[in-house]
Design goal:
- By secondary structure, the protein is mainly α.
- The chain has a single domain, classed as Four Helix Bundle (Hemerythrin (Met), subunit A) (Up-down Bundle).
- A two-stranded antiparallel ribbon has the order 1-2.
- The longest helix is centred in the C-terminal third of the chain and has 39 residues.
- The relative contact order is 0.10.
Length: about 300
């Protein structure tokens, strides 16, 4: 009996595991901002429990700092992907590292912030204290599932068909979901200044958290903006308008950021419902054409 033939181990792809300094440095900045946002949420909760301040900062100030750290993580997440594509420095290691950082910055941090923020203003509503942790976990679960699905669909080692893949995101991107929650919390904190009237606003956060969680794992398509060419020429009027818009965001940041993120969500939902309506109309026209052949739709005459 001949000895069994030993199967050679598959070769290691060094290209897939390469660590490119600049893109992964941005990913590390993303992770660092998410870590600090979690710390600020915990400190804000301690300040609330102590009945005033923690390390000289009020709960509102600490939650505001957590919001800015989450928005800073969004900026780092945009930069790492952009730098990787511009320099041709994309790798599987970078994609996995980015997803792990996103789970912390855009999954754990927003869920923890909403969970802690609900506990303080809803003391008269014990049901939210009991289910708040569950809603936070649902958001975190959907964020992790969304990132896992994105990595699988964009894995370069999977077999591709000849059909060109869509440039849009399938489901709400995790950074946009976290940015929506952070901007809403920032708007509430600056509007009410942690007053007792915050109760009414805070009660809407669990519902929004659940809606955003469902959108992340949905099939609603959202633009990715990955193909934007920043070197494209623009007219002077367009350039001035963009500068004015950026200035308005800086001046009215609490309102402008919320409008931008909610507008992004509404844009995807509007396009999704429009595609559903169009497909239903097409199916209805086809059924009518089949039931009444030669009469619908009208056929042009030979003289036209």
């Amino acid at each position: 009996m001949s000895p069994p033939v030993e199967t050679p181990a598959p070769p290691v792809n060094t290209q897939a595991s390469r660590v490119y300094f600049l893109p992964n440095l941005m990913t590390a900045g993303n992770l660092f901002c998410g870590f600090l946002a979690i710390i600020k949420c915990i400190q804000a909760r301690l300040a609330t429990s102590l009945g005033g301040e923690y390390l000289g900062a009020t709960p509102a100030e600490l939650y505001t700092q957590a919001v800015w750290f989450i928005l800073g993580a969004v900026l780092f997440d945009v930069l790492d992907g952009r730098l990787a594509r511009l320099g041709g420095r994309e790798s599987l290691f970078g994609a996995e590292f980015d997803s792990l950082a996103d789970v912390v910055s855009f999954g754990v941090a927003p869920a923890l912030m909403v969970f802690f923020l609900i506990l303080s203003p809803s003391q008269g509503y014990p049901v939210f204290t009991q289910i708040g942790w569950f809603l936070g976990f649902v958001y975190l679960l959907c964020a992790a599932a969304r990132l896992a699905r994105f990595n699988v669909l964009n894995n370069p080692y999977l077999q591709r068909t000849g059909k060109e893949m869509s440039k849009d995101f399938s489901g709400l991107p995790v950074p946009a979901a976290a940015g929506t929650i952070a901007s809403l919390v920032l708007f509430i904190l600056n509007l009410e200044k942690m007053d007792r009237s915050l109760n009414t606003w805070a009660l809407a956060l669990p519902l929004l958290l659940l809606l955003i969680a469902m959108l992340m794992i949905s099939s609603v398509r959202y633009p990715s903006f990955k193909q934007i060419d920043w070197q494209t020429r623009a007219r002077i009027r367009t350039f001035v308008f963009l500068l004015i818009a950026i200035g308005a965001v800086v001046v009215f940041q609490e309102i402008a950021l919320l409008v931008i993120f909610l507008g992004y969500i509404a844009y995807g939902l509007f396009g999704h419902f429009r595609r559903i309506t169009r497909s239903r109309r097409i199916r209805l026209l086809r059924k009518l054409h089949v039931s009444k052949p030669g009469t619908y739709p009208e056929q042009p005459s030979s003289g036209e």
